[in-house]
C-alpha cells in the first residue's frame, strides 16, 4: 500500500468532565448504536421479512388449524381471541433478538472493540436494547395489519387501543433488558442459539392460545403468573377482544394491566443495573 | 534515553482459576517502535494485550500507556490506543464504509469528520472499491484489513495487534504487513503478538519472548539470534562416518550436533564462539570423515524460540544471553 502521506486525523473531543456532558455522550453513543440497526435493515431488508413471516405463520397455524377446534370461553371468534396472545408472544420472543445481537457482537470481538474505545460505558447496553425499538414498532404495525386481515379488531376506541400497544412496547423493552443480560453472560452466539427454543415453551405456557381453565391446577397457576398471560389478558381487555376470564382469578389475571406494569418495572429495576454492571465488569 | 517508554508493564499478574496467564510480566516499549511479543499458545500474549488495552484488570502489577495507568485512567488510555485482534471485530451486516462511519461516530467525531475519515482510510488501505459492499462478502484478508483500519480512525499513539495475520494466506499477510509498516512510518507505536517467527523477524524492532506468563528474553531479532550463536552445518561424504564426525563437531562447538533426516547431515550451535571453516574441514579429515559440504549460518528465529521455550531447560552460561530485566534497559534506547 504505497499511499500518500497520512492526512491528519480529526481532532477528538476529550471525555466530558461534567455529568451533563457524560449524559450527552451516552445519549449520542446510544443513538449511534440504534442507527446501526437502521443501517443493517437498509442492507438486509430481507431480515424484516423473516421477522414478519413468523407471526403470519402463527396466525394461520393457530387461527385456522388449531383454532377450528378450540372453543373460546364465553363465546366469540377464536382469531379475535388469538391476536392479543400473538401480540404478547411476539413481544416475549423479541428478547432473543437482543440476546443474539449481543452474543454475536461478543463472539466477533465487537464488544471488546466497544470496551477498548473511549465510549460512554453504559451506552452499549442502552444502545443494544434501544436498537430493538425500531424493529418493535414495525413488527407491531405489521402484526396489527395481519390481524385486521384475518378479522381481528380493537373494539373499545383509540385510547384503550393505544394503552394496549404502550403496554406491549413497555413489556418488550423490559424483556429486552433480560435478553441483553443473557447475551452479555453467554458471550457466544452458538450458546445463544441453543437458548432460542427454550423461549417458546415459556411463551406458550400461558393463556395466549388456549384458556388456562382446562390445565391441571399446578400448571394453571404457573400459566396465570406467567407475565405473558398478564400481557395477553391486558390486551384482550383493552382491545375488547373475547376471552375475558371469569370465576376465581389469580391476581395477575384479575388486574392484568397493573401486573404488566409491575412486571416491566421489576424487570427493569433488576436487569438494567445488572446488564450495565456486567458489561463494565472486566475479567477475562 | 530520557523519555519514559510509551508502554510500560511492571510485574503484571493475572490468574484465571488455576491458570496463571501472567506471572510477573515486565515489558517496556519505546515510542515509535514495533515490539513483537512472541510466545507459544497459552503463554499469556492475549492476556497481556487485554490488560494493556483496558479490557482486563491485572490482579497485581501496573501498566501505563503514555504515562496513564490502564486501570485507574482507563478512559484516557482508551483515547490513545487502537486494538485489532484475531477477530474481524466489525459488523458483518454493514458495509465497510458503514462500519467505519459508525465507529467514527462512537469515537465522537462529527458526522462530517466520520464520513471523511472513512473515505480516507478506505482509499489509503486499498478498500475504496469494496467500501460499499457488505462485510460478510469480504475475503478473510479484507476483513482483517478493515478491522485494522477501524482501529486507526483516531490514529492511535499505540496500536495493539493480537495475532494480526493468523489464518491468512501469504498474500493477505503481506498486505497486512505493508499496512503495519506504513503506520510505523507515521510514528505509531505497535505492539503485536504473533506465533509466526518470520512475522516478528520482518516487522519488529524488538522482540519479547513470552512463556508461562513472563518475558524470558528481549532484544532485537539480531541480538536474539546472536545470543544462541551461529550454527555449523556439515554434510559428510560417507554416511558410515557420521558418528565420527559428530564427535569432532561436538568437540569444536561445545554442543551435541543434531542429526537431520538425511543421515549424512549434522547441525550444531557454536556455543564456544566462532570457528574457522578450514579448521573444521581439517579436523574432519583427520578423523577420516571427509566433508562434502560445510557451512556457517545464523540461527533462524525458530531455533532461538525453540531453545528459549522448549529446548534445553537451562541454556549454557556462555551464550551471551542476558536476563530479561537487564536487556530491557538496552531495548529502551
Automatic annotation (TrEMBL), chain A:
Topology with respect to the bilayer: Multi-pass membrane protein
Keywords: Antibiotic resistance, Cell membrane, Membrane, Transmembrane, Transmembrane helix, Transport
Cell location: Cell membrane; Membrane
Domain ABC transmembrane type-2 residue range list: 46-282
Domain of life, source organism: Bacteria
Record-linked Pfam families: ABC2_membrane (PF01061)
Membrane spanning stretches: 48-70, 82-103, 124-152, 164-186, 253-276
Family, as annotated: Belongs to the ABC-2 integral membrane protein family.
Name recorded for this polypeptide: Transport permease protein
Organism: Actinomadura yumaensis
TrEMBL record, chain B:
Membrane topology term: Peripheral membrane protein
Location in the cell: Cell membrane
Database matches in InterPro entries: AAA+_ATPase (IPR003593), ABC_transporter-like_ATP-bd (IPR003439), ABC_transporter-like_CS (IPR017871), ABC_transporter_ATP-binding (IPR050763), DrrA (IPR005894), P-loop_NTPase (IPR027417)
Domain ABC transporter: 7-237
Major location category of this protein: membrane
UniProt entry keywords in alphabetical sequence: Antibiotic resistance, ATP-binding, Cell membrane, Membrane, Nucleotide-binding, Translocase, Transport
Presence of the UniProt keyword Mitochondrion in the record: no
Key word Translocase present: yes
Pfam families, per the entry: ABC_tran
A GO term, aspect molecular function: ATP binding
Region (Disordered): 309-333
Family under the similarity heading: Belongs to the ABC transporter superfamily. Drug exporter-1 (DrugE1) (TC 3.A.1.105) family.
Protein name, as recorded: ATP-binding cassette domain-containing protein
Species, as recorded: Actinomadura yumaensis
